[in-house]
Amino acid sequence: MKRKNRLSIQEYKDGILSGNRVILSRAITLVESALDDDNELAAKLINEIYPYTGNSYRIGITGVPGVGKSTFIESFGAYLIEQNKKLAVLTIDPSSQKSGGSILGDKTRMEKLSVSSHAFIRPSPAGDALGGVAHKTRETMLLCEAAGYDVIFIETVGVGQSETAVKNMVDFFLLLMLAGAGDELQGIKKGIMEMADSIAITKADGNNLDASRQAKKEYQNALHLFPSNENGWNPQVLLCSALQNKGLEDTWKILTDYYFKMKQNGFFDFNRKEQSVHWMHQTINLYLKRNFYNRPEIIEKLATFEDAVRSGKKHSVQAARELLSFQVNN
Amino acid sequence: MKRKNRLSIQEYKDGILSGNRVILSRAITLVESALDDDNELAAKLINEIYPYTGNSYRIGITGVPGVGKSTFIESFGAYLIEQNKKLAVLTIDPSSQKSGGSILGDKTRMEKLSVSSHAFIRPSPAGDALGGVAHKTRETMLLCEAAGYDVIFIETVGVGQSETAVKNMVDFFLLLMLAGAGDELQGIKKGIMEMADSIAITKADGNNLDASRQAKKEYQNALHLFPSNENGWNPQVLLCSALQNKGLEDTWKILTDYYFKMKQNGFFDFNRKEQSVHWMHQTINLYLKRNFYNRPEIIEKLATFEDAVRSGKKHSVQAARELLSFQVNN
């Protein structure tokens, strides 16, 4: 049964391929829907547009709140549009699930981009507790590719569980850091620094310039100690200033340098293929978990079992087996 | 039905609690078994001994082959035995699944420990492709605790998928590194350095001493740039030499320092409780995946679907949904 306000697959497809932003938005809403019949329709739509995907440069951008992420995306996005690129900015922010808000909910934070006909900004989907947010963002990325966007930013806040998911859906992972910031501000999740394909130090201007230069040196030394990348890429550290419009060209140069090197040595395509297989397994895993954790008897009992395990009353394997037995018996 | 060569739960329990090494070994073999009736018996046994677990210091030790891991464990283990500790050394080595061997298979690599009545060495279990190795090692750890071992080393090779699992089952995560080693030798997995609670630089002697001192300084600077730990702990870098028996006391000092600080600020117990809940969910996930991927129709079709996704013929979500539909329909 088709829901009200839903278009036909053909209408979605034609609209997306012709670059119609309104229909693209409605297709994303379909992908983000929690309703079963919407999910069916969305899966069919993705299959239809799948041959038209894969032509964008997928870039993950991570940095904690306060690092100047939206300012960086605003300036860098404007720079890319000047280079005749069409840009889509998507966000994964699991914290928005709780607050009901979203880090990109306030579009006015990106004034220039939000009014440009060459940019498409979409805040974080609601998702569910089982990791569905990243899946939805990945499908949204495919829709944007079919709609002709050449560059796609996937933005995360660097403090949650999303960064590994993002690393597994992008071609390049850019980490934004701030020189001389306190621990609180730098409080990104462990392991993210080692994932970064490059680090951009933001707000490298005025009184902060010397500290930023020093930080660049320190991060370069630190990156040198990290395990080397299987693709032969050496992560770069660069200085940026949105205030002075500095570092944007450098950032794009590093990105294109990476792109051509990875295309040439075969890693770019290899990585995308393996990412696709990865997402097949992730999707299977998500559906298996959803099917289990959404059962009424599991929802009812889960917290009690977690408490029993936490307090040592039950061993974790025993608790797991008991919970699983409800699934088998009911 | 009880299998040949299996003891009763009571016999296992009595043997383990009295510190009988032969019965402990047989109980571990039961835990590692792939047979359903063994799994049932093992789950009951773990429940029985569960109240006697939790009293050891659980230490993860990671380093790539060549870093001197077994030499370090041999000397440090001997040092701990001199301090009247009983030590168990367990290994997770997913690569042993393929070769059929194990990094601890050759016990002669740890001559002193393997003949000591205060040390218990157990090589890596075979496990399965779905991550079952870590689950089995965690249960083996519980059996060793019930048998009275005060310190448990969980050893991994730092190049696979096991380190996150190990981080989630130990109290302290020690990374072994080598100064001035080529990229190949240092080729540990990304993200491991940021997980480490401390780094020990091995073979810091003779001609290597200056380079080791320099490396210590560099790693200390690098660790300083990492995100800070929620528990307030600052990872240390120390120098070790098995040849000169140096750094063992320092290592133990850092470990005890960490232990008392984390006991005092409550992180130690908090972390163990959260780890238990984590393993309940991991166990549920493992069983769900096993139940799915072990179905004959999935085993038969999986490689074809992976190839279709890799070559772009099928979208990953479509492939996942089709594979899942076999489960529903059969």
TrEMBL record, chains A, B:
<dbReference type="InterPro" id="IPR027417">
    <property type="entry name" value="P-loop_NTPase"/>
</dbReference>
<dbReference type="Pfam" id="PF03308">
    <property type="entry name" value="MeaB"/>
</dbReference>
<dbReference type="GO" id="GO:0005525">
    <property type="term" value="F:GTP binding"/>
</dbReference>
<keyword id="KW-0378">Hydrolase</keyword>
<comment type="similarity">
    <text>Belongs to the SIMIBI class G3E GTPase family. ArgK/MeaB subfamily.</text>
</comment>
<dbReference type="GO" id="GO:0003924">
    <property type="term" value="F:GTPase activity"/>
</dbReference>
<dbReference type="GO" id="GO:0005737">
    <property type="term" value="C:cytoplasm"/>
</dbReference>
<dbReference type="InterPro" id="IPR005129">
    <property type="entry name" value="GTPase_ArgK"/>
</dbReference>
<protein>
    <submittedName>
        <fullName>Methylmalonyl Co-A mutase-associated GTPase MeaB</fullName>
        <ecNumber>3.6.5.-</ecNumber>
    </submittedName>
</protein>
